[in-house]
Every structure is written in C-alpha cells, then in structure tokens.
Design goal:
322 residues; alpha+beta; three-stranded antiparallel β-sheet; 7 helices; binds flavin-adenine dinucleotide; binds magnesium ion
Length: 322
C-alpha cells in the first residue's frame, strides 16, 4: 500500500450508534450494502422496538418456545454459554433490569431497592431454554427478557468483516460505536484510539495498532446518568442489579473475532484487573487493556497489538507486574 493511499469513510446511524466504515476504494454501493446488512441484523436482534425476533422471544416469556432464525439461535446460544460460566458478570437475561434502569435512554432513574430485588429472580440465564432440533428459544418465567446489547454488536461486526472479505475487500475497518473490526494491515497497521474517560470526545489516552483484529471497548463513561451526586453506568452487575462498581473506567479487548471481544469486555469488567489478567493467561488469542480510575493502563499482555501511551497523566503497566 503506497503512503498516499487514500481512505474513504462512510457513516450511518444504526442501533442508536454512529457507524463508520473505512475503505481504500471509493465504493458507495458497497458501503450501502454493508449498512443494509447491519440494519437486517438490527431488525432481528433489537429490543428497542416492539418487533424483532428477540422481542418475539421476550413477548412469549412464561408461555411458549419461539422458533427463530439460525443467526438469532446461535447468538442466543453463545450468549447463554457466556452467562452460565460460574461467577460470570455477563447475563443475557438482564433485560428486565436494563429496561427498568433505562441507562442511556430517556427516563433513566435509580429504581427503589425493592424493585431491583423483585426483578432479579427474572434474570436467571438458566431459565433461557434452547432446543437445537426445533430451533426454539423459551424464557420459562413470565416477565423475563433477553438483552443482547453486550454481544450483538460484536457478532454483527464479524458478519460485516466476512461480507467485506467475500466482496474482495482486503483492507477495511468497521466501527459500530465501540466495536471495531479490521481487515488487513495498512502500513503500520490500523491505529485505533483509546478514549480518555470523561474527557472531550477526541481526547485519547493512547493508540492501539492492530492488523486483522477486533478492538472492543466498554466504558463506564459511554452511557451513564447522575443522581444525587452519584454516577450510574450501563454495565449492570447481575448479582446485585446495580451498575458494576470496581476500580475500572474501561476495558478494551483485542481478539480475532469481535464477538469474543464483546463478551470479554463484560467478563473482564466484572473480574477487575487482577482476576481478569489471570483469566486471560489461558487465552493467548484474547488480550485486555484495563483503564483504572487511579490512572493506570494495564495490559494483560501485548502480543496481538502495539500500544502507544499518549497521555502522561496515565501510567502503563503490564499484567505480569500489575
Ligand atoms: P457493552 O458493555 O458491551 O454492553 C452493555 C449493554 O449490555 C447495556 O447497555 C445493556 O443493554 C446490556 N447489559 C448491561 N449489563 C449487562 C450484563 N451484566 N450482561 C449482559 N448484558 C448487559 N441504543 C439506542 O440508544 N437506541 C437504539 O435504538 C439502539 N438499538 C440497538 C439495537 C441493537 C441490535 C443493538 C445491539 C444495540 C442497540 N442500541 C441502541 C445500543 C444498546 O442499547 C447498548 O447501549 C449497546 O449495545 C451497548 O454496547 P456497548 O458495547 O457500549 O456496551
Ligand atoms: Mg460487550
């Protein structure tokens, strides 16, 4: 790729998020097809409208199993597997709490403690029952709701990558608003900014260089509200029903597939730095960048990417010494 290679950017708003596609050729038709694909998945998976396949499952909670398309079945299966790992902070059945808190949407507020306590029993992932022969999903208790907000963008980013590859794209990037997936390696790799929490939108702590990798970030500063001097963000602790509260401002995961990145941002967020780094020692294919409230940037390891610190208010630490 010559130094002068021009990047063409295409943008859209889908899934309530800014979507950005970068290509090294001017190809509006291809961009339109990629956005159409995202829209098709949004229509299947959204819980922000009355109708979708996931809403069909939710509407039938406590009543009957619902036959769904293959992609929805596979994604629900994957989300359930991530949710039923002992101690997992990921929970696909978190829907009733997400809907009650409404964090990131109009009408957000801190629910009374007794309401949270009453909703928790409706969020048990074991009560999401899958039948692979029938291709059905059944929420066994009334009032249950699936929410794939912590995994669907990752899944969709991978589908866009596959689609672009099939259409002959060798170098490209799709950003679904926090979920970045890349094809190929422009010289020096793709440079992806690590956002500075609670700062200007373009303020960066550092840059992450990758090739053929996904970079997913989940942060407490993306969607939150404040009430009585306290901040409430959108990643809920399935054990308590309140926003996860620990030393972290954000977690970024670098991996091949963005679905792994999306799942692991939530898992690692729940584990915190020490446990997260330990868990990732068994996963050389997945690496994490933790940003702590205390101003540290902790890399679990850095074989899949190169990190450059840009803000000297932060201190860089590697997991082995953390
Ligand atoms: P992640 O940290 O990956 O996930 C956080 C989200 O997952 C939360 O917002 C919640 O939905 C859910 N969640 C919270 N706690 C947990 C937990 N412990 N385990 C599992 N899941 C949890 N936003 C809009 O404003 N308007 C829209 O119309 C809209 N439509 C969408 C349609 C689709 C198909 C998708 C995938 C997302 C849509 N969104 C929309 C965004 C959505 O509401 C979430 O905010 C977004 O998915 C969060 O992504 P993230 O990577 O920032 O967060
Ligand atoms: Mg996630």
């Amino acid at each position: 790729m010559p130094q002068t290679a021009r990047v063409y950017s295409y943008s859209a708003v889908l899934m309530g998020s800014p979507i950005l596609l970068k290509l090294f050729e001017h190809n509006e038709a291809l961009a339109a097809d990629a956005f159409r694909l995202i829209k098709q998945y949004e229509d299947l998976l959204t819980v922000n409208r009355a109708a979708s396949e996931v809403m069909d499952i939710n509407h039938a909670a406590g009543r009957n199993p619902v036959a769904v398309s293959r992609p929805v079945f596979e994604l629900v299966k994957c989300a359930k597997a991530a949710s039923t790992v002992p101690g997992s902070a990921f929970n696909l059945a978190i829907g009733p709490l997400v809907k009650r808190w409404r964090i990131g949407f109009k009408g957000d507020s801190v629910p009374p403690a007794e309401e949270i306590a009453a909703l928790l029993p409706r969020t048990r992932p074991e009560n999401v029952v899958l039948d692979s022969d029938a291709g059905t999903v059944f929420l066994t208790q009334p009032g249950m709701e699936i929410d794939l907000g912590a995994i669907a963008k990752g899944y969709i980013a991978d589908r866009v990558r596959d689609f672009l590859a099939r259409r002959g794209v060798q170098q490209g990037l799709i950003n679904l608003g926090g979920n970045v997936q890349t094809l190929g390696s422009p010289e020096g790799g793709w440079s992806i900014g690590l956002k500075k929490p609670f700062a200007a939108a373009d303020a960066l702590i550092g840059s992450i260089e990758v090739a053929n990798k996904s970079v997913v970030t989940s942060g407490v500063y993306e969607r939150f509200f404040e009430q009585d001097g306290r901040r409430y963000h959108h990643i809920l602790d399935p054990r308590t029903g309140y926003p996860l509260d620990n030393e972290l401002d954000s977690v970024t995961i670098v991996s091949t597939d963005s679905i792994d990145g999306d799942i692991w941002t939530t898992l690692a967020y729940g584990m915190g730095v020490e446990k997260g780094c330990r868990a990732l020692r068994n996963r050389p294919d997945i690496e994490a960048i933790f940003v702590t409230k205390g101003g540290e940037v902790v890399l679990s390891s850095a074989d899949l990417f190169r990190f450059t610190l840009l803000d000297d208010g932060y201190r860089l630490v590697t997991g082995s010494t953390a």
